[in-house]
Amino acid sequence: MSYQVLARKWRPRDFGSLVGQEHVVRALRHALEHQRLHHAYLFTGTRGVGKTTLARILAKCLNCERGVTPDPCGQCSACMEIDAGRFVDLLEVDAATNTRVDEMRQLLDTAQYAPTRGRYKVYVIDEVHMLSNSAFNAMLKTLEEPPEHLKFILATTDPQKIPATVLSRCLQFNLKQMPRSAIAAHLEQLLQAEGIVFEASALPLIGRAAAGSMRDALSLLDQAIAHGAGKVTGADVRDMLGAIDETYLLRLLEAIAENKAVDVMAIASDMQARSLSFDTALADLAGMLLRVALAQSVPGALDEDLPERGRILALAERLDAEVVQLQYEIALQGREDLSLAPDEHAGFVMTLLRMLAFRPEGLATVNIANAGARAVSVPRPEPKVGADADTAAEAPRADGFWPELVGKLQVTGAARELARYAELVRHDGTVFELVVPKSKAYLAEKSYQDKLRASLDQHFGMRATLKVAVGEVKGLSAAAIDAGEREVRQAEAVRAVEDDPFVQDLVKLCDAKVVDSSIRATPKN
User: Fold this and answer.
1) Are strands 465-470 and 171-174 parallel, antiparallel or unpaired?
2) Average pLDDT for residues 194-220, to the nearest whole number?
3) What is the pLDDT of residues 480-500, one digit of tens each?
4) Which of 171, 202, 296, 517 is the most exposed place for a label (fewest CB within 10 A)?
5) What is the number of other CB atoms lying within 10 angstroms of the CB of residue 243?
6) How many CB atoms lie within 10 A of CB 274?
């Protein structure tokens, strides 16, 4: 006997075996149980989600020899002939190849005749949106007032192209894309039934590549079985799909978070050596950053059985929310620009370098040592501490008090930026009056103030009072001081590079020039 592909062998034959469309099954079951049968049904959804399969199951429900039922027997001649595709009263028409009005009229001419074998004559028109306007017009009258023995089941991937006059005559059901977890679970049951050895880690990879289509998932599984010589393993599936091992992505994000440019480049080179798709890598990197963002906002949204859940949660704690959002945008833009790059590897590397270089002001930048130049470390000046903390004052305390306090507060996001850009105007015990520059007026929003106040409460162990105004500043904020320190460190770094003997030799021998803007100082500790 010839081999039958999995997508055909395991096509659902009743509502109970249909995966992922419970909302449609529930409605159809109730209609069949109460004999509230519509004359025209429209199933919409992307490829491979079960539109045609659902139409055949419904045809069996209507024509089972045991009567109209949501649970056809599957054993009578009508059920068996429908499953085999030879039931004379089930007409399946592909509208993509039968678009003209003449073909539609020819089909409708047979509508007036009673069924030959079954209870109902069922017309299944697939990709109905491909019909011409004339063909749609020809079927309107029959579609609105069909004979009692006739049922229309229309299917389409593009309901937008169906005229409103047709839509209004149909009972419409929107089929959802299959969740990855549902696809993986179904594939696991199928492989167990087939007696095929498999690794559980391979199934989510197929589920992701299938993009919501169960038919695509089964076709990919067929390919994976052939690729693995009768076995389905994670390594073989990754190799077959050109999929990116998520450990690469996590290592990249961890190296970027730690500003380790050398490690980032090494990982990118390793990926190139393995001939991995960098377009897929950037798409998957954006997906990983989405998980990190979800972990920051809704930790419960991550599946408990996610293999890398611990590392994702650790990244979520380490990275600022603003950094994650920025890196997500950079990954998307990098993927869009990939075709414009000299080659895919270059485009991927440049995207990673952007993640290292671009980050919200005040966060450390990457240390890049070029042409043998030494990494320069400039000690952070000790903050100037003023009068005793117990002494109340109408004027602000010495310049370093508030910036030093900001460094100790457990605060993130926009509230952290409020603390960094604010200057202390007045301090009295746990009463703090701050001012932010007009350019950062949005940071004075009440929700950000509330978060900063809560952080002060936690730090001092008592209720703090916070007042924030917008006005003129004197350059005494933590952000301003950090900026000044960065300028000092940058100048020292440039001087160290220019004074380096090796660099000086390169300049002389190669008529080279040191580009000051390419030099980055070592971040402060």
Assistant:
1) unpaired
2) 87
3) 887 887 788 788 888 887 888
4) 517
5) 20
6) 13
